[in-house]
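Journal club side-thread
Mid-discussion, someone asked how the predicted structure for our own chain would compare to the paper's figures. Pasting it here so we can look after the session.
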Amino acid sequence: MNVLEVRDLTIRFGRRPPAVDGISFSVGEHDRLGIIGQSGSGKSVTSLAIMGLLPEHAQVTGSITFNGRELVGLPERQYRGLRGDEISMIFQEPMTALDPTMRVGRQIGEVVALHHGEQKGSIHMEVLDWLGKVGIAEPERIADSYPHELSGGQRQRALIAMALANEPELVLCDEPTTALDVLVQRQILRLLDEQLRDRASVFVSHDLAVVREVCPRVAVMLEGRIVEEGEVEQIISDPQHPYTKGLIASARIDRVPRDQPLPSVADFYTGEAHA
């Protein structure tokens, strides 16, 4: 059985065109799916829908099931029992995801205590253990620090520790390396590759090269729709949709002839999906 099943998911905000328009995909046990697309393509909204974090005015139709349990329409009280425990999310920007007024160790500890209610001493040791697992050299110091006292890489590692501390079965990664420099980005990708091996995960990014590092499968989103999906190496070597071809070409700008204009997003959208 798939851990995550999304079927005909449509998300609207008011009278505007759908932010997500009838998409379907699945993620099996220990499986990884990358979702790529430009800003506004609907990929992050999809992640928030899975987490049950959309605003109240969002209109959601279709189905999202986690281990066979329907999440669309699930009461918030029941969602809180899943969120941060069985399903977790690594957000794009740690400075907004972390509470600036609370020490990092306490924030991670509260996530553990919320779902498992362990003793304070054992929670503290578990926090330090997870900070060590995500490659932080001085767990005690980092646990006792506020977010603004840490580097971007340290904050992202702390956020990963928080997301994984309860051993979730499904992890959603929403642009987890976007705000990092290239060296730290590669370190975080290696860390995620290691830590997500025994979990189902969805990795959202605008960067196909980043997704290629950690995901065997990829879905390409454009204007709220999945226009192409398949094995990442197959899609890179033989893309079918014009937008996918443009994404790959943009990653190889040095190979594009100087007299050939770079394509725009508007040139790629045909309104048709390619499997």
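Post-session note: The longest helix spans residues 120-133.
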